[in-house]
Amino acid sequence: MNAPFKQHLIDPEICIRCYTCEMTCPVEAIEHDDNNVVVNADLCNFCMACIPVCPTGSIDEWRVVETREAAYSLGDQYGWSELPEQADIAAPDGAGEDDPIAALLAEAHKGAGGKARVPASASKPTVNLYTLGTPVEAVVQGNYRLTDDPDHDVRHIILDFQGKPFPFLEGQSLGIIPPGLDAKGQPHLPRLYSVSSPRDGERPGYHNVSLTVKREEGGVCSTFLCDLQKGDTVQVTGPFGATFLMPTDPDARLLMICTGTGSAPMRAFTMARQRNVGAKPGGMVMFFGARTPGSLPYFGPLNKVPDDLLDKHLVYSRLPGHEKEYVQDRMRAEEDLVAEMLQDPRTHIFICGLRGMEDGVDRAFTNIAESFGQQWTALRDTLREEGRYHVETY
Ligand code: A2P
Fold first, then answer.
1. Residue ranges around ligand 1 (CB below 6 Å)
2. Scanning 66, 112, 248, 326, which has its CA 20 to 30 A from the CA of 271?
3. Angle, in degrees to the nearest 10, between helices 357-371 and 376-385
4. What pLDDT, in 10s, does the model give residues 8-26?
């Protein structure tokens, strides 16, 4: 048929190659090569199952093409390092006032969440330097246990790239390819981990990276990583992620909300600010949820971070003799602080950790925004639009 066609695409600049969309798509319309993850226009039925599972929003891209036959092919998409602009497409004869292109795009976005945007002052990230086909080898410099709880093994793993470039920014992730084959006899796909060190390394100038990894029962990659010894090697892809990035403006304020290993990027932000900005009371506020102090990653080092650098609210859900408390409960208890930050145009919000916390945190923000007469959904849209609202949950 000779009608404009709305095509579903993935933004290769923002995609972190976690392959969750591919695993979620019920009609196998999403596939990948060593370079990109792409959508087969012949198979995609716009069911939108892939939209909410994408951690970056890179999946929520649409272009209208002249006809279905003119859709971008898989070959086109595999070759892209960025998305093509929306081409000008003439409305079919007799379309009149109703613009079919605009209608198609509006329909395509119905129900999809708002798009993440980059903080205005963030540095430009490098993405996809090392791919599935061309990973870089890193050597393990150290593997340290971060938790006391015997049932909760979280590791701080330091990797060194032996002089090879691995330019990354705080908030970015990298992929680890576990050795061996999967159940189908195929090489494993990389698993994504947030980098927990600042861009210049665990120690300034060392240019190594650290990861914060929780041992998951039966987890192929987490078991591999948690068992690594000093001197072992790993295959790394990335870096990935172009929106969950730290603002470099020293006056920016960070409101960081995390659970468990979601603290990884927050550690990177805190160390980077400590090195580059120093203490600015109220500049960084953290709500960090864990089961107990013994299972809270970086409990010891975090407690040594001065309060005027980082205002810490450590919250426990399984502390004997205490009621369960989640980050959203503490945010409510600290309503005045959160309300003041929400009204400050310098505030950037970063949320990282369990997917389950998103709703609770959203509800807490709703109540807190009401306390100063604003509607959270509208405020959130503005924050997102201004690159000041970032969520990475799993
Ligand atoms: P719990 O599992 O006790 O209900 P970790 O990954 O280290 O277990 O930490 C995750 C923390 O997040 C735990 O304290 C966990 O509590 C808590 N948590 C679980 N579900 C939610 C939720 N819906 N909102 C906020 N925090 C949650």
1. 259-260, 289-291, 295, 317-318, 326-328, 354, 356-357, 360
2. 326
3. 110
4. 999 998 888 889 899 999 9
